Amino acid sequence: SRYSSQHFTIDYRRSALALRANYGEIGQEFRDPAAFIPYDNRYTQIERRVDATWTKRQFEWLEIESGLNYSAQTFFNRDNSTPAQSLPTIKRRSVAALAGATLSERVLGVDAQLSQLYRWDRIDDQSHTSPYIGASLETGGRLRVGADAAYSESYSIPPIDALFWQSDVFAVGNPDLEPESAIQREAGLKLEIDMPVSVSAKHTWYESELEDLIIWRRQFDGKYKPVNLAQAHYSGTESNVVVGLMEDRLKLSYSRTTLRAENRTPQSGYFGNMIPFRPDRVESFAAQLKVASVLIDYRLSYSGERFIREANTKALEPYTLHDIGIRLDTHILGVEESIRLDVFNLFDAHYELLERMPMPPRSMRVAVELGV
Predict the structure, then answer these.
(1) How many CA atoms lie within 13 A of 6 on its CB side?
(2) DSSP string across 287-353
(3) How far does Cα 348 stand from its chain's mean position?
């Protein structure tokens, strides 16, 4: 198997206007000429995307936001083993508009904020409106305590590859998938301290009611196929702490996310069971040290148990990964340069997110960024 990607981005900002143009291309190859049924499938996904946002503070207490988005996606498939089974080119166009406002006021020494945002999406022949409303309170000073809450609705159409994936020994697409929708609620508490040692901590409770959630179900022939669950319920917590030392040259952070993903579809036969492929717990610890123009960071991540059967009869083992990176910032002939080397899965841990699909072993990435 082989995976490749390339992305190009152009940003433009002026006053209240921000424009971003993106081009992304993802290639995937799955080939085994020695298999009982030889296969050689190639997939390419291309997206062209333009985002425009306009943000303006009309008064001291009012900020207005609006935006437009256009996306064009194209999906190609080439079956080299059986060319006649190659899929035709598939295209998708989408347009979105959003508008919202944020009200800010200081009341009795507390900063209060109320935000509302509405997003309208038009994808092929489908339209949907997604509202968001959020509120927050925060004290001022070197010791700040805050609380926030939000309600939102979301709408997501199936990915093109889930709809049209060419049948192979691992998976098969499902052109009958329905869009997902969700209602989300969350509330959180936070603490920030600005002293010789800076501390930022936040704990959030969340829950979601989902309809037509897309999951990949293992069939009798061993292939995975995406299907819709009529109803599902997510609940859990998100916690994170960041500590800055030596004027933030050394940063330590810890995060933890818990999730209870429950099947609420009565006719499925698995009502009350945990939804497969959702880990019950994810934790991470990171350390970052900056000395002059050199940045070194380390990350330890832990992913808990995840079921791989809707009957909850089989689960994949938890796993731990170690990543390390180093970045050098330079400035030559008026051009800012950043060179970064990352080593992922440093100790070459063996783990799977799906049966028979081992994840990458130890790997390295070199990245170079140039700026003027």
Answers:
(1) 2
(2) EEEEETTEEEEEEEEEE--EESSTTS--EEPPEEEEEEEEEEEEEETTEEEEEEEEEESTT----EE
(3) 24
Spatial CB neighbours of 34, under 8 Å, sequence gap ≥ 6: none
Residue 320, SS3 per DSSP: strand
From the CB of residue 180, how many other CB atoms can be counted at a distance below 10 Å? Answer: 18
Predicted confidence at residue 354, as pLDDT, reads 77
pLDDT at position 63, please?
A: 95
Q: Where are the alpha helices (DSSP H) in 75-232?
A: 160-164
Q: What is the pTM of this model?
A: 0.84
What span, in angstroms and rounded, lies between the C-alpha atoms of 327 and 342? 9
Contact 64, 58 (CB under 8 A): yes
Q: Which two tokens stand for residue 42?
A: 């190639």
| Beta-bridge mates of residue 108 | none
Evaluate whether 354 touches 224 at the Cβ level (below 8 Å). yes
Instruction: Tell me how far apart the terminal alpha carbons of the chain are, to the nearest angstrom.
Output: 38
Structure tokens at 241: 């702490």
Measured CA to CA, the distance from residue 286 to residue 324 in angstroms comes to 10
What phi-psi label fits residue 15: left (phi over 0), alpha (psi between -120 and 50 degrees) or beta? left
- Give CA angle at 352 (348, 353), nearest 5°: 130
Yes or no: say if 117 and 99 are a contact pair by the CB < 8 Å rule.
yes
